[in-house]
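Section: Multi-chain targets

For targets with more than one molecule, the full set of components is provided together so that the structure can be written out for the assembly as a whole rather than chain by chain. Components appear in the order listed by the source. The example entry contains two components.
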Amino acid sequence: MSEKTKQKLVQEPQVEHEDLNVLMQRRREELEELKKLGVEPYPHEFNRTDFSKESIDSFKDDAPQRTVMLAGRIMSIRRMGKASFCHVQDSQGKIQVYLKKDDLGSIYDAYKLFDIGDIIGITGFLFRTKMGEVSIHAQKLTLLAKSLRPLPVVKEKVDEQGNKVVYDPFSDKELRYRQRYVDLVVSPEVREVFIKRAKLISGFRKFLDAKNFLEVETPVLQPLYGGASARPFVTHHNALDVKLYLRIADELYLKRLIVGGYDGVYEISKDFRNEGMDRNHNPEFTMLELYVAYRDYRWMMELTEGMVHEAAVAVNGSSTISIGEHTIDFKPPWKRITMFGAIKEYTGRDLRGKSEEDLRKTCKELHIEIEAAQGVGGLIDEIFSARVQPHLIQPIFITDYPVELSPLAKKHRSEQGLVERFEAFANGQEVCNAFSELNDPLDQRARFEEQVKLRARGDEEAQPLDEDFLRALEYGMPPTAGLGIGIDRLTMLLTGQTSIRDVIFFPQMKPEK
RNA sequence: GAGCGUGUAGCUCAGUGGUAGAGCAUCUGCCUUUUAAGCAGAGGGUCGAUGGUUCGAUCCCAUCCACGCUCACCA
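Its structure, encoded as tokens over all components, is:
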């Protein structure tokens, strides 16, 4: 490092200090004053024994005085000279603290330098104020972490009807996503969404573990990607000097594990797709994939409805969820209908056996815009997406898809041109995708070759041929049922969020500045 | 990728061709059961960035940046 560079590094913090706004300068000054008063601004621990909500809920007016020790962040302060109230927030919520100079002595002077955002420990006894709020009468106050940056102050009030009214919520979406830590501090409902997300995932795990499926991990960095139609992220391994792809799906590796002899495997993990971003797409997202040997897609439908139902109950405590004017009930059994059956039900047209020309005519009659390149399968899918999917409010399985759309699914046992595949829909959105897995290695090779042709024609999302996967199938894979569930979108559905960014802690953003 | 919109104090937002305002937050004073605490006073801004028009731009114009919404693409 050059002398010049060294100097620059040394000077940088001071330069930064001069750039601070008055609020942050003030807090740094307070920090120094606190140190002068002998207050350690960043102690190592605090042995709390109590939490806000538990303390409030357990309070009884006629019971003997109870001392509690809890810790949290100051969210509001109301000073009245020689006494003060503040609200302290911990993981369970907020509790009011009453601080009196007579009881606290010299630390009360230090407390004058405390701010909204500081993290403190409180020891005191529970009581009810004149206004009726269960609070802590502080006997001891400990600073646990001095905050140097002002937090957005969100004020709230309970109106006559008992509804909580929030004033000036922290609402700038860009700031909320970029500084999610702030969003989480000031918005309990945001914290709640992510708690529900965790409950969904742990609900799935419990369900699958109870059935003795093995949770596994497969490579994120892959020499060849596959298992879905999407463009991958590309990276490079220096030591091997090879190109690697970030996985777009887990499918092909998990099926290799079924070949290896496990009866059931699942993986909950991030996939990466190098595509556009919108309210339903984030470049990295979480999938559950599950494969079970000796089962088919009909068996998988039963498992799916049972698993999603249990997870919905785990998340919301109920099998139903209200979205807009709809109440969606995940209780099994879910309705089942074939894709052609559903199209007939909602358009009155039977598309079975129709030629590409017929289908184009139908699209025109139904005022559905299509592209020249689309084949029979693509056209059927367009009609389904436009005329059927929006009507699928209650959970429903749509079964038996055109073979062209599903290069990894097994051909239907009785219907020509179809595969044994189902997708579940709810609230007009896809919930999962599953099929009887293709285990005929020769058929799989032919399907891959179709994909290679599409690729040669410029379809960047067509799947590359995976010779090692074919080798695995050639050793023999038992009949297998497979399932994929997008965790982010299911979380959206179960928490009533309309953007994927509201169910991902740190959604992808362009870099700042 | 296209259209529309937004960007002003820490946060939420007004506003104007003559270099800016409110509420909360902050600071000072008063206040020992307050709660959107209150009362009195004060400080705080590169008005997203860069160009242009103009005597003068935060405002008008252009470009760029970031974000949002809708659509397209995409499962």
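Residues 3-151 of chain A form a domain with the OB fold (Dihydrolipoamide Acetyltransferase, E2P) fold (CATH 2.40.50.140).
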